[in-house]
Design a protein that fits this description.
Elements lengths: L2 H14 L4 H13 L6 H13 L4 H44 L3 H30 L8 H9 L9 H17 L3 H15 L1
């Protein structure tokens, strides 16, 4: 992928990301991971790091992937590609929204986009959940059928260390309500020690 293709890819992702940065994960996976530019393990590690750092997830991912491919210039180009469509759309919408905010077609379009965005947010969540807690030979859901046919026992399908960590961190988070940064640091330490 050339640096111009990198910009165009993230411009496309930024243009069609409706519903926030988590929705961008689905498009990033389809345009970057499924084409073999980076592998799924690297992608999900980038998601974990991008979620743990300040800033919007989609922009963090764009910066990280661009930096991973082309260093600092790649990070800047990918981030610019991700942000530019939103900037253009917001300027256009701000100009026309007051005039058309009561239009029945505008209201209908916005009402339709809400459930669609919810589905787009749910898909990457499920993919990350499956990738983190199951021992899959492939990437995400595509490896699920292969895992069921190749695993010697059903219990071997599960990554028990990650499941235990998930249960412990969930309990601690909801029971003691620590600041999220402590949970993130604890998760990072867990990953360094046990994985």
């Amino acid at each position: 992928m050339s640096i111009f293709a990198l910009f165009c890819t993230f411009f496309y992702i930024g243009l069609f990301t409706i519903g926030g940065g988590v929705v961008a994960l689905t498009l990033m996976q389809q345009t970057i991971v499924d084409r073999g530019i980076i592998d799924s393990q690297t992608f999900y590690n980038m998601v974990a790091i991008s979620e743990s750092t300040p800033g919007p997830l989609g922009i963090n991912m764009a910066t990280y992937i661009g930096y991973n491919l082309y260093g600092v210039p790649g990070g800047i180009i990918a981030t610019a590609g991700e942000v530019l469509p939103s900037l253009i759309c917001i300027i256009i919408i701000a100009h026309f929204l007051k005039k058309f905010s009561d239009n029945i077609y505008v209201k209908g379009t916005l009402a339709f986009l809400r459930p669609v965005s919810t589905g787009l947010v749910l898909l990457p969540f499920l993919q990350i959940f499956v990738f983190a807690l199951l021992n899959l030979p492939g990437s995400g859901f595509s490896g699920l059928r292969e895992a069921f046919s190749s695993q010697e026992s059903f219990l071997a399908l599960f990554n028990w260390i990650n499941i235990a960590a998930y249960a412990i961190f969930t309990f601690i988070f909801f029971r003691f309500k620590p600041h999220p940064i402590f949970v993130i640091i604890a998760g990072a330490l867990f990953g360094i020690i046990f994985l």
